[in-house]
Amino acid sequence: MRALCATDLSAASKAAIENEACLRCLRRVGVDTIHLVTVVPANVHSGMPGVNFEERRRRGLDRYRAVIENAGFDVEAHVVRGTPYRRINGIAETVHADLSVVSSRGQSPLENRIIGSTARNLARTTVVPLLVNRVERATAEPEVLRERLFRRVLFATDFSENADRAFDAFSYLRHATEEATLVHVRSPKDTDVDAGASPRERLAEHANTLENWGIETQLEVRHGDPADEVLAVEAEVTPSTVLVGSKGRSRVRRLLLGSVSEEIVARATGNVLLVPPPRAV
């Protein structure tokens, strides 16, 4: 598997990329090649006196490269110019990445719904599964908040096609996952009643798959606002990562700021693995 790790060379990025436990987790799920990407914003001019931004970024990536190679990965570095989320998505497609990783500092009381602009835009537009690796905020030397990325996974599903696609990520996560909580939230706005199996029965089908892989599983069926309820479960079970599809059933919601998946990415305490739908051909 190939992972793309995006960095702005900040302390938060350094904490996420150089964390040994995180790197071991990536190895366990099958990642053997890491593409390090840093983007010089288009509005930063290379001709500014005394400053060579590309060279500075390249030296920064070389430091990361040494750490990651010592952890047993093949590494390629990319220093590019442009709009960060667009270039990151473009490189992810070009190198056929299986996973993109971006760090994001955790919440503060004054920024309850705010994440970094690059992480936010990637959550809206990512072309491959996106891991938002949460890092401490308000400290000069931050640490990642959940080192064992996939040890305890909270999977949120509305039983849509893309939620099923997100569940398929367990095919590789299972090599690092020991516990999983499966949650379905029925929103007051849901007026349709699914025929056939109940939500708990449908969750139990997923649980059976995970338990056959040796993953201890528990089920949660909630009623209320989907994002609020998923985040309430996260607070109760403190998973390493919340796994969710980036698009649900609503054709309108996918176009709106504040979708359930975006709310979860912005407000979750720990990491979020966001799985997008297949790209239209």
UniProtKB/TrEMBL annotation:
Pfam families named in the record: Usp
Residue ranges of every copy of the UspA domain listed in the record: 2-132, 150-276
InterPro entries listed in its UniProt record: Rossmann-like_a/b/a_fold (IPR014729), Universal_stress_UspA (IPR006015), UspA (IPR006016)
Gene3D superfamilies: HUPs
Family according to the record: Belongs to the universal stress protein A family.
Protein name: Universal stress protein
Organism: Halorubrum hochstenium ATCC 700873
